Amino acid sequence: MENGEAEKDKSHGWVAAGQTMMAECAGSFLLFQANCTVRKYDPKRFINAMEGEMTSLQEDLVILEKFNFDIKPVAVSFLIRPPEGFPRLETKITFCQMIRRAQEGEPFYADSENHACEVGPFILGGQKVPPPFFRGEYGVAQKHFKEPRAMRKVYQIIPKLEKDVVNCVAFSTVDKLSIEPDVIIFVADPDQTQILLRAMSFTTGQPYTSKFTGVMGCAWFFIYPYLTGELNYVPANFSAGMKLLKIFPDGTIVTSIPYQLLPTVLRNLQEMPWVLPLHQPGGEEFRERLRRDLRID
Fold this sequence. Notes:
Blueprint: H1 3-19, E1 21-25, E2 28-32, E3 38-41, H2 43-61, E4 74-79, H3 95-104, E5 108-111, H4 119-123, H5 131-135, H6 137-141, H7 148-157, E6 168-173, E7 183-188, H8 190-201, H9 219-228, E8 232-235, H10 240-245, E9 253-258, H11 262-271, H12 283-293
Antiparallel strand pairs: 1-2, 2-3, 4-6, 4-7, 5-6, 7-9, 8-9
Helix pairs in contact: 8-11
């Protein structure tokens, strides 16, 4: 074969590879190829592959049992359609209260009609908040801000989803997980939280960062990690509404880990020491010996 023909043949292969794509047609998955021929794609193979990924995640999550959390971690999934096998929440509660409901019961999903607070639908890309909210009057009347402009600043920076991206949210404790989570929320003591944060940093070197606002606080552990791919942690009940409702036990820390970081954190929890040598009995002797061995002293 001449060089020109060889290059031409290669280019056809690249085009075919690049133009291969998935589509859904008449209830069957179809594979469209560059030559415009169509062959059926076995949906069972696709489903089995997804179930395999889910099984792998469930196996990786087993490491969390080692923490012996007093409050179970909750997996949160942002969805277009209600998940199969999940009942709809039968009452109206706040977005942050839904975490406690999941921690204490069975998996469920909630839609816009289940929210008892305007913040939930707002940060999920749904209804607008009443004008006194975003004008800043409400925050000033609560004595949370001195001037309306301070409250308006919060609305400029608060993380929220675009309209029509999400129609419902599913909640489940990780031990009952049956669908892929977008965010996992932990309510833990400071020592347990330190281990989670170090598991994020163990192979990445990323710093621990915490972002929060005193109002609409739920946005920072529901939406911010999901949009940015960054872990976030905040002291429990630091927002006005959560403190009023006593959502979490005092002295705990709420840590939110997005799906982008979850494999890294779970893998590092399996590989890293949970208690550093410095913090074990004889830690000071370990430090002195280490400095001698490395010829620091």
